[in-house]
Amino acid sequence: MKRFRLASAALVLSAAAFAQTPAPAAPGAALRPFVRFTPPAGWRAEERANGADPVVSFRKGLDVITLSLYGAEGSAYEDPGAFLRGPAASTLGAPPRADGRVKVAGRSLALYRRGYPVRLGDPHAPSSGRPPELARERFVVLPLRDGRFVVASHAFESAVPSFERDGERAFTAFLKTLQPSPKPRPKK
Q: Do 62 and 69 meet the contact criterion of CB atoms below 8 Å apart?
């Protein structure tokens, strides 16, 4: 009987603790005050901070959709021009290439593409003299009201192209949901 009471008490306490556990925040909680978006269904979310720059990524297989917020104090990039000149937008030091335009948040924005090395192999083995294999990444830069900006990108982390192009379709659908968050109204 004593064991039954102890087990019952433990069950009640664990249920109370579970009820007090806050629900997990929606993916990209650090970005939500600045930008709204709908995560791609069935993709795994990963959040991190690159110093002062919050980042949320959605991954499915070799496809990665990433949303990064820049321009705050201490940010790696103070404005979109600095980002486009920097290493995060370049292909082995070469500037990004224009890849058309896309409509985001009611605006026509430049779509860029770049490449970055994948399958680097053994760093201790002699090189073959061939250039590195590059993953393909497409991205847009969305300026926000307060001087900050968001970079939305889709990368396929393989040098071999995807025949299905599911990630590209998911990125196109993701961009349709991307909107600057409304400016908070002052409290009366």
A: no
| 3-state SS, residue 50 | strand
Residue whose entry in the numeric block shows the structure tokens 């795994």: 44
* Structure letter (DSSP) for residue 168: H
- Give the contacts of 150 (CB within 8 A, at least 6 positions apart): 31, 34, 35, 67, 68, 69, 70, 141, 142, 144, 178
d(CA 21, CA 16): 9
- Please report which helix (H) or strand (E) contains residue 139, including its range: strand 134-143
Residues 6+ apart with CB under 8 A from 152: 65, 66, 67, 104, 139, 140, 142, 171, 174, 175, 178
pTM above 0.70, yes or no: yes
Could you report the per-residue pLDDT of 130-148, keeping only the tens digit for each?
A: 777 888 999 999 999 889 9
Distance of CA 92 to the CA centre of its chain: 21
Give the Cα separation of 46 and 67 in Å (integer).
11
Residue listed under structure tokens 């605006």: 107
